[in-house]
Amino acid sequence: MEWPTREPGRMDTFPGYPAYGDVLRALGEAGCRWEKYEPLTLEGQCAIRVPASDVIFVFTAANGEDPLLCSASVAEHRPHTCG
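Now predict its structure.
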């Protein structure tokens, strides 16, 4: 999975499923504001939404571990404005 870095236009690749904290850190470093997305925050999963692009990230947690990214929806009708 690719995520923006502090350098504009440069991406880093993360192996496997990024953890919740890794995603929040990458979004913060890219200047993307995020918020909890309550409609998909249920038992065993949580979700966040990036308002600038309407992308929704869904994470699942098992056995008290750090939640891992399992889904990201991309809103193609909205341009990306972070960074």
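The longest strand covers residues 45-50.
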